[in-house]
């Protein structure tokens, strides 16, 4: 982390909270509520029909507003940092997108950078389910996940629930999430 610029996003010490069954249940309920709103939304899904397609977070995602990138956050190619479009000061952001895959998948990965922690669902299955914490490695350098097994031909959806640790998003307590899906087709 030698190349990380100083920022209020860098905590003085890492804190992890225990994740209770009640907290997990609440996150799953948040996902189900958002997924039902996503399904009710009449929008044309992104067509994934090129050999390589990158789908990055931006203001075209449902409930997402582009925010300035904090100096401590890693740049995520093809994506912008976003937060809750309804309330930029919220402690939680729930964003989503729908896309359609037209051919067989060769490989797929998700690059995720989140300040502070997140739950990510693809087609209703949990890809990431972080415990509450303020770990700088989650946003610099970020994390990469193999998501090929979560995708299918046809319609796909991704829902990201991002959390700011301990307080609402503010200049003194920044929060943001950037995600980039890279899908390679056969």
From TrEMBL:
Gene3D superfamilies: Galactose-binding domain-like
InterPro entries given in the database record: Galactose-bd-like_sf
Name recorded for this polypeptide: Glycosyl hydrolase family 2
Organism, scientific name: Paenibacillus methanolicus
